[in-house]
Amino acid sequence: MDIKVYFCTMSFDIVKSLHIIFVVCWFAGLFYMVRLFIYHKEAQIGPVDEKTILSKQFKIMEHKLWWIITTPSMVLTFLFGTWMIVLNHEYYLTQPWMHLKLLFVLLLILYHFFTQRIMYLIQSESLLWSSTQLRLWNELATLFLVAIVFLVVLKSTLNWLYGTVGFFAVGLGLMITVRMYKRFRS
């Protein structure tokens, strides 16, 4: 094997590995961030002493999680994903599944920045969402994760009708689960 071909292949595999690692970190940050919002919101209902102490702690945790893990992971995911496309643009830019994946990634980036907005609102104690609404918001990230992973793994072998039905079925299932959890808690 030519050394240049070997180096490019090895480089691509390293970049792909780093992309996957930071995708995992990004989603972990997004999932945990909204979970913190839920706890933060529920702490607002408690006694004043508890509310003050917990709110202060949640603000610190949210700030650190967002700026030390979640946002840097998003940036690095985007960087390594773009690098992969550059290394193999003849393939990636001609694939319909990649176009759809990039659409979901764009929606995920919008989700990321809207979650940041929620963080600012909850930290200023002006968020009007209930903890149930925050739970549903958290499940939206799950839908993005499911859609992106299935697109990447199954690529063009996925029947679009089944894929679309499956996507909405997962969404409906998540909504039902949140509602059942709410009834169970009551």
What is the β-strand count?
0
Shape: flat
Number of helices: 6
Beta-strand percentage? under 5%
Distance between the first and last residues' Cα:
65 Å
Order of helices and strands: HHHHHH
Number of domains: 1
Helix/strand structural class: mainly alpha
Assembly state of the chains shown: single chain
What Rg do the Cα atoms give? 20 Å
Biggest beta sheet summary? none
Helical content class: over 70%
Low-pLDDT segments: none
Average pLDDT confidence is: 90
Explain what you see.
- It is a single chain.
- The chain has six helices and no strands.
- It has 186 residues and is mainly α.
- The protein has one domain.
- The radius of gyration is 20 Å and the shape is flat.
- The model has no long low-confidence stretch (mean pLDDT 90).
Features:
mainly alpha, 186 residues
Topology:
Blueprint: H1 3-43, H2 48-87, H3 89-92, H4 96-123, H5 131-154, H6 160-185
Helix pairs in contact: 1-2, 1-4, 1-5, 2-4, 4-5, 5-6
Outline of this structure?
By secondary structure, the protein is mostly helical.
